[in-house]
Write a structure and sequence with these properties.
GO biological process, one term: nucleotide metabolic process
InterPro entries: HINT (IPR039384), Histidine_triad_HIT (IPR001310), HIT-like (IPR011146), HIT-like_sf (IPR036265)
Organism: Baekduia soli
Largest sheet: 5 strands, antiparallel
Number of strands: 5
Pfam families: HIT
CATH architecture: 2-Layer Sandwich
Strand content: 15-25%
Radius of gyration: 17 Å
Low-confidence stretches: none
Distance between the termini: 45 Å
CATH class: Alpha Beta
Mean pLDDT: 93
Protein name: HIT family protein
CATH superfamily: HIT-like
Helix content: 25-40%
């Protein structure tokens, strides 16, 4: 039996204790429609085993969620006529995570949809980029 958290909304959805609109499932994942959709067809892919976030999820479950997310992305392109797809994960409250059960948003994108991501890409400072890269590599 997969590990669950009795207070977790998504664990309750996976267990069938809370109604959801499931569109796909397999041994490791469940894909269901988001009740607060960003666009038409917005779905969530969750592992059946509880893990709070990307830092806690078992690598095999993460791979299963990625595979299911890819399948869902293909479905929204083929069946809903989406022009693109965003795959989004948030890790931590400061990154907009609101349910602490790892989940992958599969957000269909349409040419005329009003959804805008929360930043406007602009060139960064090359020295700051290099400094962060050095820290990530474990350099001084």
């Amino acid at each position: 039996m997969a590990a669950t958290d009795p207070d977790c909304l998504f664990c309750k959805i996976v267990a069938g204790e809370i109604p959801s609109t499931v569109v796909a499932s397999d041994e490791q994942t469940v894909t269901f429609m988001d009740i607060n959709p960003a666009t038409r067809g917005h779905a969530l892919v969750v592992p059946r085993t509880h893990a709070a976030d990307v830092l806690a999820i078992d690598p095999d479950d993460l791979a299963a969620v990625a595979r299911a997310g890819r399948q869902q992305a293909r479905r929204v392109m083929e069946r809903l006529g989406a022009d693109g797809v965003n795959l989004l994960n948030s890790c931590g409250a400061d990154a907009w995570q609101t349910v602490f059960h790892f989940h992958l948003h599969v957000i269909p994108r349409y040419r005329d949809d009003p959804l805008r991501l929360p930043w406007d890409p602009a060139p960064g400072d090359p020295e700051e980029i290099a400094g962060a890269a050095g820290q990530l590599r474990g350099e001084a």
